[in-house]
Write a structure and sequence with these properties.
Layout: H1 18-26, H2 29-41, H3 47-79, H4 87-109, H5 112-136, H6 143-163
Helix pairs in contact: 2-3, 2-6, 3-4, 3-5, 4-5, 5-6
Length: 164
């Protein structure tokens, strides 16, 4: 139990379903494919189609970071059934969720070689902050999946940025 709220022990730390695992891993396809396209196509195609590939990868990264920020809101909403959260805890979770989405938007507006680095760093920051957040909300069974997804997604962003 945490000081923030009480979650019944049977409801603590659920593991992702098979569907969640499959969809989570499928969500990596745009990261991996985008990075492969960047590496394979740089200097081999016209600037406009290459810029499209880079924009697509960067935009997808921003969407995922915003999704992760929104998940913080969703977990706060869902936790109200388990017991009250302290106002300070709610405030931090809600503000950081908004901050992630806003930072992803800023990274999206940056030149791609820099924006992708920021996006990779944001993905890592989301995971690091969510490690404690998930534990406190009783959903730490998802952290293994989150770690794997974060490693591949952030590495994809860094590798693509290195090639631009």
């Amino acid at each position: 139990m945490t000081a923030h709220h009480a979650v019944p022990s049977a409801a603590r730390h659920p593991e992702p379903s098979e569907l969640a695992l499959r969809l989570g891993y499928a969500g990596l396809l745009p990261f991996v494919a985008g990075t492969l396209f960047v590496w394979l196509l740089v200097g081999r195609i016209d600037d406009e189609p290459f810029a499209f590939v880079v924009r697509a990868l960067t935009s997808y990264g921003a969407l995922i970071v915003a999704f992760l920020g929104g998940m913080r809101w969703g977990l706060i909403m869902g936790s109200s059934e388990a017991g009250p959260l302290s106002p300070g805890y709610q405030r931090r979770a809600l503000w950081t969720g908004l901050a992630f989405a806003s930072a992803a938007w800023v990274a999206l507006m940056m030149p791609p070689h820099a924006g992708l680095v920021v996006m990779g760093a944001l993905l890592i920051a989301c995971y690091l902050l969510d490690r404690k957040h998930y534990l406190e909300l009783g959903v730490s069974g998802w952290l293994t999946l989150r770690f794997r997804l974060t490693v591949v997604a952030s590495l994809s962003c860094f590798l693509a940025a290195a090639q631009i």
